[in-house]
Amino acid sequence: MSHQTAASAPDPAQLVASFKSHLAQSTRIVTIIGAGLSASSGLPTFRDVNGLWCNHDVFLIASPAGFRRDPGLVWQFYSERRRAALRAAPNPAHYALANLAEAKPGFVALSQNVDGLLQRAGMDAKQLKLLHGNLFDLSCAGNCGYVDYNNFVDPLCEVLSEGRVRSNVMGADVDEGGKPPKASALLFEGIAAKNKKILGEEKFAEVAPTAKDAAPLRELGEEVRVPEAAPELHSGIEKEELPQCPGCGEHLLRPRVVWFGEALPEDVMEDVDNLFKEEKIDLCIVLGTSSTVWPAAGFCEEARAKGARVAWVNMSAKDCKSARSEDWVFLGDAAVVLPEILNTSENEK
Ligand code: BJW
Ligand code: ZN
Question: Is 92 in the pocket of ligand 1 (CB under 6 A)?
Fold first, then answer.
């Protein structure tokens, strides 16, 4: 773990000690959480190199329009995510946060994660605000009001069973043996399509990748295919084959997560509004998020406005760009950093 502030790099031990001393005196603590928290549990983030979005036009997957266009493709993506989350286990950072929540009744986690791992680490539901929903809640895509909470069935229907889902609807192939991950065919096609868009047809033709360029991305003997055009992603799945809403019998079910352009859950936003309306906040921890998605990206400044001192925990300094010189910045894996800096047993309960 390396520790630094935006202005200088003081002694790491001193930095941890000063953070711990502030933590011990803090009662109202807000944590803004992103996908980096679950990275050590083996769940890919969204925007990192092998992240979930690296193969995708985000809006084909995480928008109501994407679901209308091809609900099968969206369901394939979320079925894989449900399966991966079910197989994953909470890591030491999830437990450190759950312990802190128990030790500090004024602690609130504002989590963008939908994987259920904080709940499984034992965090009290009252202290956990799920900004972007939950992979294991399903709702009617036609808004008849039907909701199915905590549905852990897998697969949800035959067409979404493991063997049937195309492997490349997730991020680039996941590194399983400590070897560098191999780019998937879809990633390669995506890069080509993007370059084509930027350069225009003619310029792209001049610099288009050749079979030789593509060769290192393939297994020995695997056929090398150079994309000709933008990949047309279609699942080929009929609506009738997907989970149907038992409430109205008319529409499909969808994962109850928040897509781009959709409002965050009303009750959650009400709690968040009240949180920032109430008295002083002592500490805000921004954890494993690129802070690119709103409204969550704005919560750190709201906490500052209520007097909070801010601590950042992230693998990448570039995602702590709004850090000020008086903030604590802990660069490293959340699963290593959090248990060290929270060390809840030392804090007052
Ligand atoms: C590690 C690590 C390790 C790696 N340890 N760290 C204001 C300005 C501009 C735009 C907008 C605005 N307000 C609204 C918008 C539009 C839009 C938006 O924000 N667009 C931006 C892209 C610009 N926002 C919305 O549309 C939101 N809705 C809304 O505002 O509605 C208004 C409305 C009101 C009334 C009526 C109607 C509408 C909704 C946003 C929903 C986002 N949904 C997603 C998908 C959820 C479901 C799913 O999971 O599939 O949420 S998108 C995706 O991004 C997902 C995430 O929760 C979210 C944030 O990503 P996160 O967690 O930060 O992940 P990454 O990958 O980006 O970062 C990982 C980080 O971890 C990195 O920093 C790594 O370095 C780090 N890391 N390993 C520690 N081991
Ligand atoms: Zn319905």
Answer: no
- Nearest-CA residue for atom 56 of ligand 1: 112
Helix and strand totals (H; E) in the chain: 12, 10
**Whole-angstrom Cα distance, residue 331 to residue 315?**
5
Alpha helices, H only, 7-135: 12-25, 58-61, 64-69, 71-87, 92-103, 117-120
241 by Cβ neighbours in 10 Å (0-12 / 13-18 / 19+) ranks as middle
Ligand 1 mutation target, pool 1, 38, 43, 46, most atoms within 8 A of CB? 46
Can you read off the two tokens belonging to residue 37? 């928290």
Q: Give the tens place of pLDDT for each residue, 227-277.
A: 443 455 688 999 999 999 999 999 999 999 999 999 999 999 999 999 999
Least confidently predicted of 186-200, 206-220, 240-254: 206-220
